[in-house]
Amino acid sequence: MTEIHSFGNLPVIAHSWNKDRTQIALSLGKNDLRIYQKVAGKWKLIHTLCEHLSRVLAIDWAPKTNQIVSASADYNAYVWTLENDVWKPQMVELQRTNRAVCCAKWSPEENKFVIGASDKNVAVCYYEKEQRFWAAEMIKKRPKSTVTAVAWHPNNQLIAVGSCDYRCRLYSAFVRVVDGQPQTSNWGTIKNTGELLYEFQSESGWLHDVAFSPLGDNLAWVSHNSIIFAVSAADPSQITMEATNYLPFRCILFMNESALLVGGHEFSPLLYNYDQKQGKIEFIEKLDRQETATGRQSVGRRFDQPVIQTQTPEPVSTHQSMITQLVPYQKENGNLVKISSADLFGQIVIWNLSDKKEIVIEAGQELRGDVDETLTLELRSGKAEIFGTELAIGHKYQFTSGMKFSIFTYWGCTIVSSHDDYYVARDENPMHIYLNVHGMLEQLRQKADAEKTRGPRIMVAGLPDVGKSTLCRMLVNWAARLGRTPILVDLDVGQNQISIPGTIAAMVVRRPASVDEGFRIDMPLVFHYGYKTPGENIGLYNEIVSSMAMYVNIRSENVEKSLISGVVVNTCGYIRQEGYESFKHVAKAFDVDIIIVLDSEWLATKLISDLPSVKVITLPKSGGVVPKDAAKDKFRENKIREYFYGPRNNICPHVFTIDFNDVKVYKIGAPQIPDSCLPAGMILKNPYNKIMPIAPSPTLVHHVLAVSSSSDPEQLLAKNLLGFVVVQHVDPDKRSLTLLSPQPNVKNRLLIMSDVLFVDLK
């Protein structure tokens, strides 16, 4: 959960909290400090501290001593002390500073603080009790440009300094009057005040912020060229850097010894992980969870055509302007669990990084859930998989609203979730049975490899909503993990997992499906059907199944690896009357060896009787399978939207106008005329595959049109598709069509009308 607090529309240059987080001190770009207190859920201004003559650039509130240090462009720094509900200032003696004081920070023990100025000066300041003033111990080997950031080591005697000369320096901040004796440090021996221990060179770009890890073993900084740097005390000579594609960062914090949080012009804090052993800094996630970044290529690449991406949608973020500062808000066991961020629009946002629940799943159990809002899951330990795709430890997987997930573990694991849209299923499930089927298929593949014969061909059948598509996905994923390249054929025209509704499709599976985005679609074979169920034109359905089977057989015969890996065929849940005959047609067309029937003894018995040469296996359905009649229309709409806009809405499709004369639109299949309407004795041939030209008219609006690869209208049934377009507008007067397309033009003039509709509300 995030808390958003607004303090007007002035920029928050700096902010700091009191000990119990009931008050906040702000610099709003003016020469005063404003202290607000939360009263009845609202922030009330209770103090205005006016002593500076120019803009206040830095604020730090010491929680234990309840003192505030402020630094300003008027060359001065003040320490504010609360006496009788009045904040009294005391100027710090910065005699050698003649430029703006850019940064100030209290030490961990709050008995001194450090300031950095634009005249290159760095001063360690402490209170001189006898003289009753704040003295400054100047660093002699000072930076060569403006000091932009300072940070304290947990031992209270080391400081890190960032400046505009592209360098981060590590100085001794030991002050004998205050510290007594120097402490040992993992960064080296501490002796005199201002002693330069290390100087780290950045590639380019001035430094904006520096930070130590909670134990002080690691140091990190960010520069204006969007690079994150980190170094470990274990090997200070090895600087790790991560050049990002984001806008420049302005601030950085260590959440723990390895987790880094950065913020800046990107509007959202970004979480990274620093692995000092491997010398890597890896991106984890945006705290806002909005995705405008990369997904897979436009689905237009399915048909091996170039994709022109014109623009990327703007993110919707909590902050609406640059993040100016990240400040620790709450710690647990030494690690940060809450931070606050400020921006140029007067907003303070509190981010709760502990909003994640840890779930322990025992061996043989399954974590299931329906996602109401964006859900992030991370495997912390053990081994687990989603539909046959193995999860990587430490990787965060995002599931968007409406998605379902099922995480199964054979060995036991620990999952961290950002929400509680899940439950652990402890009932008996058939995953071990499914895995045994995979083992049997792999043995058949090994035998085929040794004998140079054909591998297994499997057809999965059953009633609607019993998990046929999921089982097919698991079988091909498991095969791909072993280096096999099975062919996945999806004949489900209503919920096709390879192409859009109203089609059948096939693809070679070379790698397991992505957990977030599904299969990587590389040049699939797609045939037009045009309806959502086989029963609407069963003759046409059987004919395109035969065409698909012919191409799949050719592929298998010509590519030895595909021949050995075999074929997995997913079918529709249409099994009564004509549907059952269609099942038999599919089995014969693809010459299947094994039919897996899910949760239907009747169907299994019929197939055993009618197809004695085929091995029929009956398997139970998973307990996580639920009827999805209400969600089918949403699934179909999302599948079409994903085709045009990408899996994460990160693709911008093209909208263009084309003349009637530049394309020809056809419809396959004509209505069956009842026998009662025909002359006596006349028999009319079934018109299921009749190819009829369609005159462009407003009735085409919102219809999906398939782009055929055929140049001959008579070959529309026998040829595969190149892609799809949607008719957005028809202008009869100008004789033009306005089309939505992943490509900037139509590659072929022959278009096939589908009964599938898509209303683009984006």
Q: What is the fold's blueprint, element by element?
A:
Layout: E1 2-6, E2 14-17, E3 23-27, E4 32-39, E5 42-50, E6 56-62, E7 67-72, E8 77-83, E9 86-91, E10 101-106, E11 112-117, E12 122-128, E13 133-138, E14 147-152, E15 158-163, E16 167-172, H1 176-179, E17 196-201, E18 207-212, E19 218-223, E20 227-232, E21 235-243, E22 249-254, E23 259-264, E24 270-275, E25 280-286, E26 323-332, E27 335-343, E28 347-352, E29 357-361, E30 366-370, E31 375-382, E32 385-386, E33 389-390, E34 396-399, E35 404-408, E36 413-417, E37 423-425, H2 431-451, E38 457-462, H3 468-481, E39 487-490, E40 503-508, E41 525-528, H4 538-558, H5 560-565, E42 567-570, H6 578-589, E43 594-598, H7 601-610, E44 615-619, H8 629-645, E45 654-659, E46 664-668, E47 691-694, E48 703-708, E49 721-731, E50 736-741, E51 750-757
Parallel strand pairs: 38-42, 38-43, 39-42, 43-44, 46-51
Antiparallel strand pairs: 1-28, 2-3, 3-4, 4-5, 6-7, 7-8, 8-9, 10-11, 11-12, 12-13, 14-15, 15-16, 16-17, 18-19, 19-20, 20-21, 22-23, 23-24, 24-25, 26-27, 27-28, 29-36, 30-35, 30-37, 31-34, 31-36, 32-33, 32-35, 39-40, 40-41, 45-50, 46-47, 48-49, 48-51, 49-50
Helix pairs in contact: 2-3, 4-6
Family: Belongs to the Clp1 family. Clp1 subfamily.
Keywords: ATP-binding, mRNA processing, Nucleotide-binding, Nucleus, WD repeat
Binding site for ATP: 366, 404, 465-470
